[in-house]
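Recall the central idea of this unit: under ordinary conditions, the amino acid sequence of a chain determines the structure it adopts. In this exercise we apply that idea directly, starting from the sequence alone.
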Amino acid sequence: MYSRIILFLLVIIIGAFFYLHTVNPAEVNFKITEDWIFILPVTVLVFFGFFAGVTLAVFNSLFVDARRVIKDIRVRREKRLREQSEANYRKGTAELLRGNPEKARQFFEKALAANPQDIDILLCLAKANMEAKRPDEAMKILESGLLKDPGNMEVLSAIAKDSLITRDSYKAAKTFKEMLEMDPKNPFALKGLRDLRIKESEWEEASELQKRLVSRGRNGEDLAKEKGLLTGLLYESAVELMNEGNLDGAEQIAKEALKNDDAFIPAHLLLGDLHLTKGKHSDAIKLWDKAFERYNDEALFLRLEDTYLKASDPQKILDRYEKAIAQRPGDINLRLLLSRLYLRLEMVDNAIDELERLASEGEEGFYHRILLGEAYSRREQGSKSATLFKTALGLDKELPPPFRCTRCNHSVPDWQPRCQDCESWNTLRMSVEFSPASTSHTMPTGEGHNR
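Accordingly, the structure predicted from this sequence is:
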């Protein structure tokens, strides 16, 4: 049917040509160049143009059809490759979950070969290589991913994580900085770079990064933790400035730490030390005295005690102890510290009387036995002293009061601003049951500023 229609149209066109050629016998000169001129009937010229247009239309139709065919072939091929890639990706993921990174790696390589632009496959292949103990190959894969998609945050995050695993701190820091250039509030990069700076004791930069994290404005427990960590980092920055001789800068940062958390005892102690360094002894004593009234922390009282003794004014600290104990009659720690002070001042009888009163009240812990043993020893009551010292090994000459971390229960023989075990600031409190052998790691029993 289609061929008949074409034949019919051709007959009509040819018929029309001869009819027009008969009734239009005129000729025209068709000039191409000066020497190349054709004399053609008008009808021939008209029909030549017509057939030229038809020919171009036919060739255009053929070209469009050819392109469509090629495109269909390409689409079908890409679909087939994508299906193969997805199948291998699923198999690789399953093997990775089963704990077979080598098999997973093979499937991911096939999947990536079929779909080289898929970043998710590339990330999984890098992960499989890391689990298969091939960190160099994993890093090469991730770097190739950056070439395909520069600035891809997922790839940069994976590079940073793998660098931390391989302990390449320089590369990890560089990657975190690159991420922050693109996204200054990226929490993963801020925390990662901050933690690196903490390990390197770069306190100033760590605190600046922590300020950016806190400024993100998240509420609840997470914000409280971030603020607590910021306080600790500010304190360390102030200590660093003090050690460098920049007392004014240290004082400013210490006050900033207290503004962030006024209950942060290390900053109170540091501010007092700065006053002492500047020769402002009365300011230091007032500051520590006021802080003790508010927070009842023994570390503050110990610093007051040392300051008065260095100033050769023991009576003032004795009076201060008596006043504090009168205000807090149930505070066993203060009474033990007073007994210790009696021993430091060689007021042995006073120490024994106070310690014996504590024993009669049923308050007889490890540190109590240490002090009473030392008191008996100084009174040359050897047999009784030997019994008490039997369970108090490791005693030094200064009889320092013991402290325990309220977060991890780690015990230390002297106060520190930061727990060496859980790395929390402001968590060490005096513990009368301290034992040199007991550095336990039980569940937290208190709150602190932890990392």
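Residues 218-295 form a domain with the Serine Threonine Protein Phosphatase 5, Tetratricopeptide repeat fold (CATH 1.25.40.10).
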